[in-house]
Design brief:
The complex is a heterodimer. Chain A is built from 18 helices and 16 strands. Chain A has helices at about 5-10, 20, 35-45, 50-55, 65-70, 75-85, 90-95, 100-105, 115-130, 155-165, 180-185, 195-205, 225-230, 260-270, 295-305, 325-335, 440, 445-465; strands at about 145-150, 170-175, 210, 235, 240-245, 255-260, 285-290, 310-315, 340, 345-350, 355-370, 375-380, 385-390, 390-395, 400, 435. In chain A, the strands form 4 sheets. Chain A has a 5-stranded parallel beta sheet. Chain A has a 5-stranded parallel beta sheet with strand order 6-14-7-8-9. In chain A, a hairpin with a 5-residue loop joins β10 and β11. In chain A, α3 crosses α5 and α6 (about 75-85) crosses α9 (about 115-130). The longest helix of chain A has 21 residues, at about 445-465. Chain A is globular and about 70 Å long. Chain B has helices at about 25-30, 70-75, 110-125, 145-150, 170-175, 190-205, 240, 250-260, 265-280; strands at about 5-10, 15-20, 35-40, 45-55, 60-65, 80-85, 85-90, 100-105, 125-135, 150-155, 165, 185-190, 210, 230, 235, 245. In chain B, α5 (about 170-175) packs parallel to α6. The radius of gyration of chain B is 19 Å and the shape is globular. Helices cover about 30% and strands about 30% of the residues of chain B. Chain B starts with a strand and ends in a 6-residue tail after the last helix. Chain B has 2 domains: about 5-90, Beta Barrel (Elongation Factor Tu (Ef-tu), domain 3); about 100-210, Nucleotide-binding domain of ferredoxin-NADP reductase (FNR) module (Rossmann fold), CATH 3.40.50. Chain B is of the alpha/beta class. In chain B, about 50% of the residues are buried. Classes of the chains: A alpha/beta, B alpha/beta. Chains A and B meet through β5 and α14 of A and α1, β7, β14, α8 and α9 of B. Bound molecules: flavin-adenine dinucleotide (FAD), iron/sulfur cluster and FE2/S2 (inorganic) cluster. Iron/sulfur cluster (SF4) binds near residues 45, 53 and 115 of chain A.
Chain lengths: ~475, ~280
């Protein structure tokens, strides 16, 4: 195919489950490219000499390189190429906000639509997994150094994967009973099938990483005790898992959830399969989800799948300020989620048994921009109104869990209790202790957590080898 | 981590004791802390207070009452079986110091979590008055163990079939507070109505009272907020800020409501369990 023809190929759409159908099941929404569509899409890449897309990628995946291999039909080779810089392509291909990272930079997007980099990444990773061609790389001789990784989210998994391949002995300590962090407890099955996360963790185990689930560091052992046990370095990737509430009246009524609880019940504990699984969840008919980010979208779409008649997303600013990915807002609306913008709850009202039955809200208007540059919502006087709901999910952000910080003397934190760490190395104020991911930056993204993990792994390697 | 069951004993009709092989937790645990366990892949995370531990042998004792599906299932396990997951020790340990006279009060299966606190308070040099109670004589547990760590022990039964006839709160008031006996601290653990009754009593006499709350939990690491309670008008998480709180500040009404969130589902789950068992389906 010559260049002219290639330029004419339209961006290949992603086949998806019908909105009406998928709004009632937990299966994955996008169905994935076929080898044919993947090759066509790959041909749209013009193989830039100075690829702008790579600048947009936090871990600098060789994007034109892997896409060229897809165009040739060497999907396994393409997967290997991505994996040399990104250990979790099946995850990133699904959950990375490509529209503000690589794809926004793609030259094809200047006049028309960018190459569907994320979809191609997802395709090759899935192809490799389905083909059973995930091979374990040859392991180097042991260095005899031992590294403890606290937390098994994307940052911890990346650190572990990088360090095991450098010959170190790596043990991950995870508080929950399953490894994966937000990937298993937060992000729903219909966006990221848990089997994918499990196979990534399994891959690490096969390379020799020890995964110790049900171990809360700060409780069963402190960071100092890990050093006493003989670890040479410790990486902290404990995430931003502290739920935030608004502290308004009625927030402890039955039927009012934090997004973390709602999603953990549904995802980690599989409450959507109750009673086959033991953990229950309230299946509300009129559900309000408070917030405008990706977490709120996940909660709202989960509520729909649990059988709600109405799911309302209540957000205090306007659509333009919503932090959620446009694609997620679009998916949610297709599934029937109703957006109630410029609205904020001020009180939940309960019945005589302590169950939420309605919420009182205020209408807002946008005023002057605040520190974040977004226009500040200001309440409209006298606009109070009451609206009937039987379930509420509060998804207004997360903070840092203090368990490790409060048991590690000399570990410096900032005013929000996030751990202070060097951006390039993850080095904290304690010798031998490194940190990265959401516990340093505050709630961010999977790929940024992985990027931080990669940098920390390099620094940890240097540190333990020079000791 | 998984944990093997080393010993099993039935303490009363619905109360069971398991001794688990859990060296790491046994070494670290302190009075007042708890563990979370999961029996099998489909299981829920069950929080249970550590009733006792032996750091040298590496064992941990849990005592529980069968109330729903999960605890029934747990009671059917036998010596040699493995729990899929066991995590701990969780929660803040009891604040133990020598303050004088401490009344340790346990209602029903609540005697189990009171025992390690009583032992710790005794070891700290306090004079211990223990009051343990249940509906009737057959439901009184750990009387000998409690006696061994107490200076005075009162047993109560609601029906008068053994010891003091009445509630633990009444025994506390009639035998001690009303008599003007000085008590510096009360620790009360048991069903919420019992803890509330004790707190109502001790408030009248201005005796500081600590209660240990058993709210519904999921992760038990402070990540979800399922366990939240109002204490002194502030929202606190039982799993990380507690489980012990100043009983005079706890909103018991809210706690009772919140404990009832899944009543319907718990019944459904139990029914499902019974049906599956009758049909002889494995994997439960
Ligand atoms: C619902 C939801 C949806 C999201 N959607 C997206 C998306 O689409 N795209 C995207 O890029 N990002 C998304 N994010 C953000 C992204 O998931 C996080 O930025 C990322 O997971 C952070 O990785 P991490 O490794 O820092 O920590 P986490 O993934 O938070 O993992 C931390 C792990 O550490 C464990 N831990 C904590 N304390 C201890 C301790 N003391 N001892 C042992 N273990 C401990 C925790 O249990 C957890 O498993 C989403 C987040 C949520 C909550
Ligand atoms: S910027 Fe777009 S066209 Fe250029 S190499 Fe990257 S993906 Fe291909
Ligand atoms: S049980 Fe989840 S925060 Fe306490």
């Amino acid at each position: 195919m010559d260049m002219k023809e290639r330029l004419k190929i339209p961006r290949q759409p992603m086949p998806e489950q019908e909105p009406k159908v998928r709004a009632r099941n937990f299966d994955e929404v996008p169905l994935g490219y076929t080898p044919e569509t993947a090759k066509l899409e790959a041909l749209r890449c013009i193989q830039c000499k100075k690829p702008a897309c790579v600048d947009g990628c936090p871990v600098e995946v060789d994007i034109p390189g892997f896409i060229a291999l897809v165009a040739e039909g060497d999907f396994i080779g393409a997967a290997k190429k991505i994996k040399s810089t990104n250990a979790l392509p099946a995850v990133c291909g699904r959950v990375c906000p490509q529209e503000v990272q690589c794809e926004i930079q793609c030259v094809r997007g200047k006049k028309g639509e960018p190459v569907a980099i994320g979809r191609l990444e997802r395709f090759v990773a899935d192809f490799e997994r389905a083909a059973g061609e995930v091979s374990i790389p040859k392991m180097p001789a042991s260095t005899g150094k031992r590294i403890a990784v606290v937390g098994s989210g994307p940052s911890g998994l990346t650190v572990a994967g990088d360090l095991i391949q450098l010959g170190h002995e790596v043990t991950i300590f995870e508080a929950l009973h399953k490894a994966g962090g937000v990937l298993v407890y937060g992000i729903p099955e219909f966006r990221l099938p848990k089997a994918i996360v499990a196979s990534e963790v399994d891959y690490l185990s096969k390379m020799g990483v020890k995964v110790e689930t049900s171990n809360v560091i700060g409780k069963v052992a402190t960071v100092d005790e890990l050093f006493e046990e003989g670890y040479d370095a410790v990486f902290l990737g404990t995430g931003a898992g502290l739920p935030t509430f608004m502290n308004i009246p009625g927030e402890n009524l039955n039927g009012v959830y934090s997004a973390n609880e709602y999603l953990t019940r549904s995802n980690l504990m599989k409450a959507y399969l109750f009673p086959e699984y033991d953990t229950p969840i309230v299946r509300g008919k009129n559900v309000a989800v408070v917030g405008g980010g990706n977490v709120a979208m996940d909660a709202a779409r989960t509520a729909m799948r649990l059988g709600a008649d109405n799911v309302y997303l209540v957000y205090r600013r306007s659509r333009k300020e919503m932090p959620a990915r446009i694609e997620e807002i679009h998916h949610a609306e297709e599934e029937g989620i109703q957006l109630n913008l410029l609205t904020t709850p001020i009180k939940y009202i309960g019945d005589d048994k302590g169950w939420v039955k309605s919420m009182e809200c205020l209408r807002m208007e946008l005023g002057e921009p605040d520190e974040s540059g977004r226009r500040r919502p200001v309440p409209i006087k006298g606009s109070e109104f009451i609206w009937d709901v039987d379930t509420v999910v509060v998804a207004i952000g997360a903070g840092s869990n203090p368990l490790v910080q409060s048991t590690t003397p000399g570990l410096d934190t900032n005013k929000w209790n996030y751990i202070i760490a060097d951006e390039e190395t993850g080095q904290t104020s304690r010798e031998g202790v490194f940190a990265g991911g959401d516990i340093v930056t505050g709630a961010a993204t999977v790929i940024l957590a992985m990027g931080a993990g990669r940098k920390a792994a390099r620094a940890i390697h240097k540190y333990v080898m020079s000791k | 981590m998984s944990a093997k069951i080393l010993e099993k004993e039935q303490l009363s009709e619905n109360v069971f004791k398991l001794v688990l092989d859990a060296p790491k937790i046994a070494k670290k645990r302190k009075a007042g802390q708890f563990v979370v366990l999961r029996i099998h892949e489909e299981g829920e995370r069950i929080p249970l207070t550590i009733a006792d531990a032996n750091a040298e042998k590496g064992t941990l004792t849990i005592i529980f009452q069968t109330v729903g599906k999960s605890t029934n299932h747990l009671s059917e396990l036998n010596v040699g079986d493995e729990l899929l997951d066991l995590v701990g020790p969780l929660g803040k340990p009891t604040h133990v110091e020598k303050i004088g006279t401490v009344a340790c009060i346990g209602g029903g299966v609540g005697v189990a979590p009171v025992y390690p606190i009583t032992e710790a308070m005794k070891n700290a040099g306090n004079h211990i008055i223990s009051i343990i109670g249940a509906r009737d004589k057959s439901l009184i547990i750990m009387e000998d163990e409690m006696k061994a760590v107490s200076d005075e022990l009162v047993v109560t039964t609601d029906d008068g079939s053994y010891g003091f006839h009445g509630f633990v709160s009444q025994a506390l008031e009639e035998k001690y507070l009303l008599q003007g006996k000085k008590i510096d601290l009360v620790v009360a653990i048991g069903p919420v109505p019992m803890m509330r009754a004790v707190c109502d009593t001790t408030k009248k006499y201005n005796v500081p009272t600590v209660v240990s709350l058993n709210s519904i939990m999921v992760d038990a690491t402070g990540m979800c907020g399922a366990c939240r309670v109002s204490v002194g008008g502030k929202t606190r998480f039982v799993c990380v800020d507690g489980p012990e709180f100043d009983g005079h500040q706890v909103d018991f009404r809210e706690l009772i409501d919140r404990q009832r969130i899944y009543l319907k589902e718990e019944k459904e789950c139990m029914d499902h369990y019974c049906t599956c068992k009758q049909q002889g389906k494995g994997g439960l």
